[in-house]
Write a structure and sequence with these properties.
Layout: H1 48-73, H2 87-95, E1 102-104, H3 110-115, H4 120-128, H5 151-166, E2 172-177, H6 184-196, E3 200-206, E4 209-210, E5 213-214, H7 228-231, E6 234-239, H8 243-258, E7 264-269, H9 288-295, H10 299-309, H11 315-338, H12 344-349, H13 357-365
Parallel strand pairs: 1-2, 2-3, 3-7, 6-7
Antiparallel strand pairs: 4-5
Enzyme class: oxidoreductase
GO biological process, one term: branched-chain amino acid catabolic process
Subunit structure: Heterodimer of an alpha and a beta chain.
């Protein structure tokens, strides 16, 4: 009988000798939950002023989130996904980049693109469904939040390919959640980036739930970081509640990408303190005990303790920044509300440099 026939001696499936193995991972940390430095080798090289700026942005983002939730309840914003708890991943990852780098966000990632240069009032217009919200100013290297889960991963991959073809020392970063890692676009992007060694960072904010689906039901993999192995790119898991670990990881990944070393997948373990969206009830799938446990790792408290020990931050600073944020949000929502109302003609004109003739005819029907 031919070689490899069915009567060849069979081996039990648990005796495979060439099985691919991967080691367990432990999240990279710089600070303990108490704000003490436990891994000084991973401390990012930041001045005192830069450390204070990071804290400023995190406190500002928390206060902005508080106000945005109230605006949503008043009907003054459209869709809004709360961000409290994830300030470490959002602020830290964007801060580690340059303004020449490109940010491709998901639906919860409005803070990153505002800190990257998008005016806040345009973020509010976007939430309100106004076309001007998506008219990104020249020189602001962001896309608007992608509502289709995972689609932004392919956008960032393509942008990174453009950087490589042009020989530019720039990096694209894209964000998704643990649920987004189950989408086909996620695997396509990683595989393509691995094949062509593209300068892109895939940043997964694993907050434990894809709306209501817990991570344990999301994948059989040990971690999302392990999924980098099959694509031939670097994979790293970090403590997303530790903003210094986030900054260090993204700085390193960006430096490797700029030097032609290719892509990195970063899985940041984090937690959203609030519901998935304004229509979600997190009490249906999370326990009070779980929420309390994660609250002890609050990125603002953790980093705040570190700065207080260095004499760089105080409760008075937090109160001052929260007041600044409240005033800024009120100013920008007022500007958004005073923006000229959207028209059909304006919507069409905003989409084309030279409007096609058939659309010009349709515009006339609305005038």
């Amino acid at each position: 009988m031919s070689k490899g026939s069915l009567d060849a001696p069979a081996k039990p499936v648990n005796s495979l000798t060439h099985e691919v193995h991967s080691e367990d991972v432990a999240p990279l940390q710089v600070l303990s939950p108490e704000g003490e430095v436990i891994n000084p080798d991973y401390m990012p090289d930041l001045t005192d002023e830069q450390l204070k700026e990071v804290m400023y942005r995190m406190v500002f983002t928390r206060a902005w989130d508080d106000r945005a939730i109230n605006l949503g309840r008043q009907g003054r914003l459209g869709f809004y996904a709360p961000v409290s708890g994830q300030e470490g991943t959002m602020v830290g990852s964007e801060y580690a980049l340059t303004k020449e780098d490109f940010v491709c966000p998901g639906y919860r990632d409005m803070p990153q693109i505002v800190w990257h240069g998008l005016p806040m009032y345009q973020a509010f217009l976007y939430s309100r469904g106004h076309q001007h919200g998506g008219q990104i100013p020249e020189g602001v290297n962001v896309l608007m939040p992608q509502i289709i889960i995972g689609a932004q991963i392919l956008h960032a991959t393509g942008i990174a390919m453009g950087f490589k073809l042009k020989g530019e020392k720039r990096v694209a970063i894209t964000y998704t959640g643990d649920g987004g890692s189950s989408e086909g676009d996620f695997y396509e992007g990683l595989n393509y980036a691995g094949s062509f060694k593209l300068p892109v960072i895939y940043f997964v904010q694993n907050n434990g739930y894809a709306i209501t689906t817990p991570f344990a039901k999301q994948t059989g993999a040990q971690s999302i970081a392990h999924k980098a192995l099959a694509a031939g790119i670097r994979g790293l898991q970090i403590d997303g509640m530790d903003v210094l670990a986030v900054i260090y990881a993204v700085q390193q990944a960006a430096a490797i990408a700029r030097d032609g070393g290719g892509a990195t997948l970063i899985e940041a373990l984090t937690y959203r303190f609030r519901p998935h969206s304004m229509s979600d009830d997190a009490t249906k799938y999370r326990t009070k005990e779980e929420e309390q446990e994660w609250s002890l790792r609050d990125p603002l408290i953790r980093f705040g303790k570190f700065l207080e020990a260095k004499g760089l931050w105080s409760d008075e600073d937090t109160a001052r920044v929260r007041e600044e944020a409240k005033n800024a949000v009120n100013e920008h929502i007022k500007k958004a509300e005073q923006t000229e109302k959207m028209t059909v003609a304006g919507l069409i004109d905003s989409m084309f440099e030279n409007t096609p003739a058939h659309l010009e005819e349709q515009k006339a029907d609305f005038q």
